[in-house]
Design brief:
Elements: H1 3-18, E1 28-29, E2 32-39, H2 46-65, E3 69-71, E4 74-76, E5 78-84, H3 89-98, E6 102-105
Length: about 110
Amino acid sequence: MTLLAWIDVGLLILAVACTPSLGQRAPTQGSDITIGVPLAASGADAQEAALTRQGYDLWHDWANRSGGIEVKGVRHRVRLLYENDNSDPQQSAQNAKSRRIFSLRNT
């Protein structure tokens, strides 16, 4: 076999391996997952927090593009709940204690 034939065979095997079988069911859609994000929207760290928020938003869009995060065969869309901690670590800790940082919420 030539190198080109081996590449064709390899690509065919890869395509078959990455294609879901006809017997598999698509994951069902579950409730949204809400993730609390402490963020310094004001105060001394506000400029860095704006960049951090862009990173979270980028991940959020990526995760929800395919229907959300799959957990035990169920897809859950992600929601981000930003909490301003005013660049104060004590406020950030208090925000985390007073709210569930990670929760499943029916929508």
